Amino acid sequence: MDAVAIAQRVRAGELDPGEPLRDARERVARLDAQVRAFLTLNPEAEAEAEAVRRRVATGEALPLAGVPVAVKDNLATRGLATTCASGILEGFAPPYDATAVRRLRAAGAIIIGKTNLDEFAMGSSTEHSAFGPTRNPWDLKRVPGGSSGGSAAAVAAGYVPVALGSDTGGSVRQPAAFTGTLGFKPTYGRISRYGLVAFASSLDQVGTFARTVRDLARVSLVLMGHDPADATSLKAAPPALEPDPARARALTVGLVRETLEAGNTPGVLDAVDRFRERLEAEGVRFVEVELPSLRHALAAYYLVATAEASSNLARYDGVHYGRRVAAGDVLTLMERTRERGFGPEVKRRILMGTFALSSGYYDAYYGRALKVRRRIADEFAGAFREVDLLATPTTPTPAFPLGAKLDDPMEMYLSDVDTVAVNLAGLPALSLPAGFEEGLPLGIQLIAPALAEDRLFDLAALFEQVTEGAYQQTAPLDGR
Ligand code: GLN
């Protein structure tokens, strides 16, 4: 059952909200020793299901009534450990819920647990976690992508129909592609960042995972809306997310030439071709589009993201939250706490970001990156005068083996080559499962103009309809 079906049956009184929770718990107990999607399970979930039962009985129309949801562990959950997969947040339980989490609960969802990630969402494989890697449910020797790898794996493994992640440079879309799930990153400002632990504030957005287009729309819509607690939250009314395949037939899609060059596996290029053919047969128009500045997107992203991270992560000093390594004076205390609390990738980012911002280098690095960012946004705007949507591979390859890129940060960063530009420009995008290569899922990324999320969902719904959901299955874990 998908989330829409669960909520409908719970509201109709045909299904007790405790049942989907029991099923999810049973599946996690049976399979998660191998996958390791979860860092923490919520001991209050049964009590929350009880509360949903009472609310349903009073006739509250809850859009996610009784739906079990997994939440990335960089979103604050009241009284429940929030670690960011970092040693430095050891023992920290926030005194409040992130707005996204509060909205889930208000909609009747049940948070079943917190999922693994790369430490502070810095990474592309979920291997940079202080608690060990998550494995890809499609092949346990491979990574699920990152940084929201735990949430992607929880959906792919069939534990939950929907999950929350965060996307700063691709951390929802890339793991969605690697696990055969749908992943959505909204327009910057659409979903409140309040309670999302900051990595790079001008790029960070909460995003969503699901196995069906209607579920992805349902959970995303629940999260959207203005929030005075986040100064970058948009005041615009949320889009009408009622995916309509018929409406998609009138769209023109631009295939981005720069993302279809060398570096893609044959399976990825083949998936793009077949995506085009199937949708052309439905009347969708395809053209080719050039975005020359995309070649500089990765370099600009890794300057902007690290610069902002170096500033955001200054707050973990052993005084305010989490772990403290005691010392005779406060400076030594801070130094030792940071030395022992942060993992190697986080330290690398802080160093790079501090360097990019340091006097004498600021203009050459950070300043230049901001100019590239501006130009990328302008090129996107130009393209959207000709087309309604853009399409690219989500990633140039399917999921790679555990350990394959751990010793080479540049190789790891390259797996985000097709996703980071979207964050630099603040645009909405969606990754949908669109093929397999040697048994591993592949994803296609759709990009829309700011605030035009509805087009992403319409086209995804049309593709889902013509392929009859062939690429949206649960990973074949049970037989193993
Ligand atoms: N993989 C990218 C990085 O390491 C993106 C991370 C993210 O979106 N949180 O920065």
Could you list some keywords that capture this structure?
eleven-stranded mixed beta sheet, 480 residues, 11 strands, single chain, binds glutamine, Amidase signature (AS) enzymes, alpha/beta
Reading the helices and strands in chain order gives: HHEHEHEHEHEEHHEHEHHHHEHHEEH
Query: Which whole number gives the mean pLDDT?
Result: 97
**Major sheet characteristics:** 11 strands, mixed
Structural class: alpha/beta
**Sequence of strands across the biggest β-sheet:** 1-3-2-4-6-5-10-11-9-7-8
Helix content range of the residues, please?
25-40%
Based on the coordinates given, report the CATH architecture of the domain at 3-238 and 429-447: Alpha-Beta Complex
Ions, cofactors and other ligands present here are:
glutamine
CATH topology title of the domain at 3-238 and 429-447? Amidase signature (AS) enzymes
Low-confidence stretches: none
Query: How large a portion of the residues is in β-strands, by DSSP E?
Result: 5-15%
CATH superfamily of the domain at 3-238 and 429-447, by name, is: Amidase signature (AS) domain
List the total number of helices. Answer: 16
Number of beta-strand segments = 11
CATH class of the domain at 3-238 and 429-447: Alpha Beta
In words, what does this structure look like?
- By secondary structure, this protein is an alpha/beta fold.
- It has a domain of 255 residues: Amidase signature (AS) domain (Amidase signature (AS) enzymes, Alpha-Beta Complex), CATH 3.90.1300.10.
- The chain contains 16 helices and 11 strands.
- It has an 11-stranded mixed beta sheet, with helices on both faces.
- The mean pLDDT is 97.
- The structure holds glutamine.
- Glutamine (GLN) binds next to strand 4.
